[in-house]
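hiii so um. not sure if this is the right channel but i have a protein structure encoded as tokens and i wanna go backwards to a sequence. like what aa goes where. can anyone help
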């Protein structure tokens, strides 16, 4: 995450390939929470988005992405590719 704060996206991806996605999800969550409290007109839209994010298919997709990323990193380590930093 420190590499993201310095806007070094390549180094950030080398440490954690989905770190940028996690960071953006956290930012969207914080902004959405603030909007939910401040702007009552957006509550319906935000509630709909949170119900979509809570579906089991979203959890399965997230789990698949995590496992595939982990396998890709292990493959890189086994082949001495040096793409990722550990």
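sure thing!! here u go:
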């Amino acid at each position: 995450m420190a590499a993201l704060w310095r806007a070094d996206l390549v180094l950030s991806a080398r440490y954690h390939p989905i770190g940028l996605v996690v960071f953006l999800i956290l930012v969207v969550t914080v902004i959405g929470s603030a909007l939910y409290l401040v702007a009552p007109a957006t509550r319906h839209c935000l509630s709909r988005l949170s119900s979509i994010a809570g579906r089991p298919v979203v959890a399965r997709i997230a789990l698949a992405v995590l496992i595939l990323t982990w396998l890709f990193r292990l493959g890189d380590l086994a082949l001495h590719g040096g793409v990722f930093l550990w």
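oh and Residues 2-78 form one domain.
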